[in-house]
Amino acid sequence: MSKDFIQSAGLKLAILAVLFVALPLLLVSLDKGYIYQVVMLALIFSLLAVSLQLVTGIAGLLHLGHAAFYGVGAYIAALAGADYGIGFTLGLPLAGLGAAAIAFVVALPTMRLVSIYFAVATLGIGQMIFLVLQNWVEVTKGPNGVSLFSGIDLFGYTVDSELGIYFVVATIVCISIWVIHRLSHSYYGNALRSLREDDQCADAMGINTVRLKIESFMISSFFAGIAGALWAYTTGYISPVDFDFAESILILAMVVVGGLGSIPGAIIGALLLILLPEALRGVGDMRNIIVGFVLFFSILFLPKGLFGEVPSLNFIRRQFGSAWQDNPDKQKVGWK
Amino acid sequence: MTMSRRTTIGLLAGAAGMLAVPFGAMAEGPVYLGYQLPLTGNTAQYGQDFKTAAEIALKDFNASGKIKVPVEIIFEDSRSDAKEGVAIARKFVDDDRIVAALGDFTSTVSMAAAQVYKRAEMAQLSQTASHPDFAKISEWQFRNITTQAQEGVYNADWMNEQGLKKIAVIAEQTDWGQSVVKDFAEKVEANGGEVVFTEFFNRGLPDFRSIITKIERAKPDAIYTGFFYEDGAQFLKQMQQLNIDIPVYSTSAAYNQKLVELAGPAAEGLFLTVTFLPNSETDHVKKFVDEWKAARGGAEPGQFPAQAYDAVNIMLEAVARAYPDVSRQNVRDELAKTKDFPGVTGVTSFDENGEALKQLTKATVTGGQFVPLK
Fold it and tell me: How many structural domains compose chain B?
């Protein structure tokens, strides 16, 4: 065990300590429902931003309909819970799988499209899913939305305290982000990046580009669905307008402001765009203008994002690529 | 030693005094209400109207001296976004000073926030939430808007009296639009009439002509519509362009002076129910309209600000009745007792679910004006 390993484990432990010890302690000592709500919202949107990062930042597919898959997950979880008595334990994976299944179906015809054409196709898909949620009244209850009063049940144990719900959400978000981190900071992630840089070249090198695109699209939608289920269970009421185009744009803005291709960047972007408007509540009606200015100037002066891809990759390699650091003589490229 | 004893006594006296002050202040301090509403974003115009209406109501109430302490309203901007609405509800609930909440504007945000108020046991009174299940969420939810269970039935009977039996129904695709069709259609059929055509449209539809053509093919005696003024003006204009002369009936949601401005002569002869007419001669309506005009540079208030004005007044009355023991529970109980409240949107009572029962007035558009029908 080298010193580097301890150092890198240190950061992992620090993140876990903040999420599962320091933050809960702070939440309990403040005992404000409002703070719980904002923290949970920040967690859910971190997951949404990171999942979009996989498709848009890393695989380079501009996706304008991410909120629709978030909505599919939320609706599956809420309808399964409200109408069929399927609780959180089963509803959560169902929400992810359902969103991924729909992503697979819509990915098939769109994967041959490139750049802006793909973006417009995802815009259309997002709107289609939104309109289905809105107008398929028999199934989705249409604009009436779905109320879900059941609360979170985990393997037969009902979690109803604020802190318990926080731990459930934090754990799920943490595991999900860790999975996306492992996928994107690996040779698999490099293959996705090669699609973004030059998919014909990647094809010539023997990478199955279409398959990778579909996979990344499905994985991303899976985690959007998970985030949707978390939103449905933490709010208790969902309706189609929670998942409209503006929401897709909000998630995309988090990814771009944080830094395209950077997983920590996506988290920073999500935290910024959720926490800043709440922190500025005291300013009154001007707060949206201030948020707009912050976004504008951050893009103007940091076009690669608050935590761009290159520094982020270096950071991840140094802090999280522990096996890679074991042998200092090896060439410092690639992943282990 | 003496010195220090004196100091100790002084400190004790000081501490006692400091303790006494907050207790005294608690009885005399203002009563706080929370109001969540969209002050920015796509629906900001509605939220800004509510804020003006609330400020008018609050100013008059505090000037009236009905209770010894002033009431203050804390406004929070929800942007009509459920994420923010829920966070605000949590914020209000956390704040021990706040005894009850008003808002939100849209059903979605109101419903999502309602889950918070229900758990925390704080009364929530929305001036506009129209979702059929809103008031049923718990005993803590109230609203000051006529429900379609009341209005739809009233309109079905009205049309029945006019001998209109075959009716086409269109409504916007929202929770409210759904209830417009459902409650109306049930009563029409109970009256021996027939709904010959039903269609929902998405809000902001620019072209109603295909719907109008389909309506014409169904040959109804009249058309019943669930729309707001923007869609209503568009629909009426296109009816006129296609030269279709079938009487159109609508709900109080279509009531807005802008409907006449936008649709022009096409709005003539529209029948609708209203609860608020700004040109009414009643004293309290006149007073509200005058104050509104003073605050807004001469513009007339619409239906929604009037509902907000009444909602705030109903809440303030409940606070006044609960005074001096203004707890969350007491305010809710007093709110539930609201009966025959003389609002600008008609005499209002809450039923056992917290639904507003209002006096409805039949009206029509003549010469660019909404006029009540006898």
Answer: 2
